Structure formats: structure tokens, C-alpha cells
Amino acid sequence: MASTRLLCFINAKAAGSTKTLARAGCSVCSRRNVCSSPSRLQSCMPAWVIDQYGTNGVLRYTDEITIPTINFASEVMIKVSAASLNPLDLSMRGGYGSTLLNLRRDPLSLVSNYNEFPLILGRDLSGVVVDCGSGVTHFAPGDEVWAAIPPWKQGSLAEFVTLTEYEVSHKPKSLSHIEAASIPYIANTALSALVNAGGLCRESSSDKRVLITGASGGVGTFSIQLLKAWGAHVTVTCSQNAEGLVRGLGADEVVDYTAGDAFEQLEMMEKFDVILDNVGGDIEQWAMGLLKPWSGAKYVTLVSPLLLNTDSMGLLDGTFHAGFTLHNKAIQNIISNGVFYRWAFYAPDGVALDEISKLVDAGKILPVVEAHFPFSQVPQAFQKLEHGHARGKTVVRVAEEDDSWTETVESEQDVQKTGQ
Predict the structure, then answer these.
(1) Distance linking the first and last C-alpha atoms of the chain
(2) DSSP codes of every residue in 256-324
(3) Among the listed ranges 17-21, 122-126, 407-411, 413-417, which one has the minimum average pLDDT value?
(4) How many Cα atoms within 13 Å fall on the side-chain side of residue 112?
(5) How does pLDDT run across 240-280, given as a tens digit for each residue?
(6) Which end of the chain is less congested by CB atoms within 10 angstroms, N or C?
(7) pLDDT given at position 297
């Protein structure tokens, strides 16, 4: 019953009038305002999928993906208006994390021939709720929402997505769908790193010094704005041609990482309370010396070997090896300098997005969209992202913004009155 509102919505959009709905024999449920027309149901939707892991050539457009249905009382179904791409999508296209993600999708994948394909990529979305499970209390059909999708679920490069209400948030009123789609993934990732791992929050950041490496990408540009809204002093590293962008977002000090003396410049500065590393590699070897010793300072990296290890070594060996690495580095740094070494991971959280929505509508956080593409050009959007040196987000317009959903809601209300 929960998915029938979506199916009626599709029929209504195609028919364009309440008369067509009446001829189709829709039954009306006044409690949830749901229409049902079993003989005219559309069961498939357009989407971009991959049928195997690989490079850009594995991306395939199809209009034969089964529309997701609501299977639990806490789920909402969303018609996607816009989605955005992240480096995670490039990695997942190549198979990154498949061992652990398949285990999350199906615990029996370890002992069976589990097939995750066709797989839909895309972790960000902005769109409109079209159906709600019986237990949903925070959303109703017609609500404009945004969300970050867990990596084990089907993604947002499709017409419809089903998520739990705890993964969804009301979209900021001041943003278009294209702008809104650029934020959820980077917001949830930055909050996981800065709050959960870094120990920062609005009340405790005003006297903190934070260094962000690789600050011109999505997580970096968002983190600058969030930290400045919280009153922190923010130093960033980026290339010289991104300096104007990061300074415009509020960065207090900017160091060109391509300059030969970048580390020397950072060493001359006052030491930091938190370092957020978006780059990885050799950075952690010299970053520890930039933290305040014996004062609870934290190095937080978003580049951990966990998923790479489980992919290459298997679930048990990979998890053990990653845990052993983390344990050794954490112990070594706490003993030698009194600083904390931590990994951070992307963690979808609708409640956290509620708080970010308030900051956006207050003008404290701006979307940073570098490019956007129509739904027909998803491979070109991936190519853009693959070129690197991002200056914000790459967004895909899944559906053109219009009033069709509002018109459909009004049409259904008219049908309900006629039925009564």
C-alpha cells in the first residue's frame, strides 16, 4: 500500500488531469491520500547503472530499473530532482569497498554468489517526497528534502530513491535543488570528521585553530564555512589558483601546497588543535609535528586503508590489518606527543542535516557548485570529476525543476473530494 501513492503520482503526471485518474478507477484512502490503480502501474524508472566494475565505459543508461518500494514503516520514497558526484562515486565505480559493502547489503554474501549488479551510483540528492511509510512522522508527500545515501544502498542517479526518514532532512528553503544536492554528502562527512572524530562543536570551537589539507574540494570548502560559522581560526592548504575561492569562504590563512616551502610555512605558525586531512599519503608523517603537544590535539584523516585492505586481503585479514595499523599509530602518537590519531568515515545523518539547513538558510554556509550536467550526460560528469583539482561540486540535473508534483497533489485532492 505504501508504494501506491508513487504509482498514482506517475499515472497522474502522464495523464495530466483528474479525469484520467477517475477513468483509471483510482481508489482513494483518505488517511494517507493514496491512489491505487493496479491495472495501470508503471514498474520501471530511468537510471544510470554499472553492471561491472571498471572505468567510465561501464556506465550504462537504462529505463528498465524497477522502481524501489517502501518495505518498512520508517521509509520515505523520494523523486530525485538533482544528484551530485563525489570522489567516492569514482572509487565505487572501480569496485572500492565492494567486499564490506556487499556484506552490509547481504550478510550471506560471504557464503553465496551474491550479485550486487546493476548498481546505481550517487550519494547526494535533493528532491520531493512522493510516499511515506505508515510510521513516518517528520515528512509528508510534497515535502522538498535533501539527503545523503548510505554507500550500501542504491544511489541517486535514478528517478526515485527510498530511504529511512532518519537519513532525510527538509531542504533549505533558500536553495534550488541543484544547489542543495551539492551539500549532504560533504556535510555528513565533514561533521563525522570534525565532530565525531575531532571533538569540535559550535560551543567549543571559538578558541580552536584548525588546519585543513586539500581544502578546495567539496569536504574542504564545506568545512571552512562550518568552522568559521562556529568561530574557529582556519588555515588551509590548496593550490595557488584556488586561493581566491577558499579565502572567499572564510579561510584565515592559506598555504600553497605546490610551493617548495609549504611545510616550513606551516611550521612557523602557531600549532593547531585539529588537523583535517583530505589528502592522505605523506601528509600524516609531518602533520603530527604541527599539533599542540599534550593538549588533546587531534589528527583526523578521511583517507584510511580499511576498505582497500578488505578488498585486497579479504574481510577478516583486511579488517585485522587495518585495525592493527590504526592501533599502532594511535598508541605511537599518544605516547610520543600526547596527540590523538583518528580515522573518520562518511556517516549519513538526517538530523545533522537539519542543523546544516538552518545554517544555510541563515547565510552561514553557501553551496559551491563548480559544474552541472543534464541527466543524459552522466558519463561527462564523471569525466569532469575524474580530472581532479575540484573547485566545488559536480551536480547532475536528474529532473527539471517544475510544479508537476504540486499539481499532482492538487489533482489527487480533487479526486478525493469527487470520491466523497
Answers:
(1) 20
(2) ETTSTTHHHHHHTSPPBSEEEESS-TTHHHHHGGGBPTTTT-EEEES--SHHHHHHHH-HHHHHHHHHH
(3) 17-21
(4) 10
(5) 999 999 999 999 999 999 888 889 999 999 999 999 999 99
(6) C
(7) 98
In angstroms, what CA-CA distances link 214 with 147, 171, 178, 208, 281? 24, 27, 24, 19, 12
Non-local (6+) Cβ contacts of 401 within 8 A are 81, 176, 177, 178
State the virtual CA torsion across 264, 267, 272, 276 in degrees, nearest 10: 30
Using pLDDT thresholds of 50, 70 and 90, give the confidence band for residue 124.
very high
Overall size of the chain counted in residues:
420
Cα–Cα dist 198/36, whole Å: 49
**CA–CA separation, 217 and 223 (whole Å):** 10
pLDDT tens digits, residue range 397-409?
Answer: 999 754 444 344 3
Cis amide leading into 172 (omega within 30): no
Cα distances (angstroms) measured from residue 273 to each of 204, 290, 338: 11, 9, 12
Say if residues 418 and 22 touch (Cβ distance below 8 Å).
yes
Q: What is the three-class DSSP state of 365?
A: coil
**CA-wise closest residue to 6 among 416, 411, 408, 417:** 408
Please report, as a single letter, which amino acid is at residue 191: L
Q: What pTM value is reported for the model?
A: 0.86
Encode pLDDT of 312-344 as tens digits. 999 999 999 999 999 999 999 999 999 999 999
What is the Rg, in whole angstroms, of the alpha carbon atoms belonging to the chain? 23
